[in-house]
Please model this.
Amino acid sequence: MSPIPHDAEWYRTEYLKSAHWRWLRALRLEFAHHRCEQCGWSHDADSLKAGLQRQRGPLDVHHLVYRELYDVTLADLRVLCRRCHDRKHEWLEWRRLFQRQEDRRCARKLARLLEKKRDARRETRRG
Model:
C-alpha cells in the first residue's frame, strides 16, 4: 500500500475516479440508504419537488480519516449532502486554524519557560 500523495490534484483527478473509490462510495451510500448521515436529507421525490436539491446538492462521501487511501473501511466514511459536507470542511478548517494558534501559544509559553530556566541557571552560576 502506498501512502496518500499530498497532492490534492491527484486525489481529485485520479483517486476519486478509481474503481476502488467508486466501489467504496457505492457501498457507503447503500449502507446509509442514500441519506445524509448528518441531516437525513435524501434525493427522494418529495425533496426534489420541494426544490431542496438545489439547497442540499448531491450526496458526497466524506473521509473521516486519511490513513492510506487503499486502506479505507466503510467506518472511515460518512455520507453527507453537499451543504453538510461544506460545513464539515469549514469546521475542520477552523479547527486547524485554532490548533495552529494553540501550537504557537504553547511554543511561546515553552520558550518563556526555557528562558526563565536558563536565566535561573545563570543566576546560580554567578551567585
